[in-house]
Amino acid sequence: MPHNLKCLIIEDEPLAIKKISEYIRMFPSFSITGTIRDIEDPARFATDLRATDILFLDLVVSGGTIETLEEHIAEIPFLIVTSAISKRDYPSFVKERNHYALQKPISPEMFRECIAELFNMH
């Protein structure tokens, strides 16, 4: 697994933010660079997105539609969708790129399995 991977969380539910943050901390090579709770103005956090290795993305977030992030997240190496939405209802720009899915509610085991899959550690 690569070292010093920068993780950004886009999520507006406090409990989900707390849990995802706890799970990220289980991996010493990961660091949380920030949490975005409102996506109304993507330009405000575009620099953070460009510096992100792994994006944990909820598909339903305050302040706008997730489609406004399409161009901003296109270059992020790893996208992990953290949503209660069914995969078939993901926006096309998510379906069309390589991504991983963590269906809410997310357990520590689900999180570990996703990271293992992400880095082909099975």
UniProtKB/TrEMBL annotation:
Residues where 4-aspartylphosphate is found: D58
Keyword Transcription included in the entry's annotation: no
Domain Response regulatory stretches: 6-119
Entry-linked InterPro entries: CheY-like_superfamily (IPR011006), Sig_transdc_resp-reg_receiver (IPR001789)
Source superkingdom: Bacteria
Listed Gene3D superfamilies: 3.40.50.2300
UniProt KW keywords: Phosphoprotein
SUPFAM superfamilies associated with the record: CheY-like
Protein name: Response regulatory domain-containing protein
Organism field: Sphingobacterium ginsenosidimutans
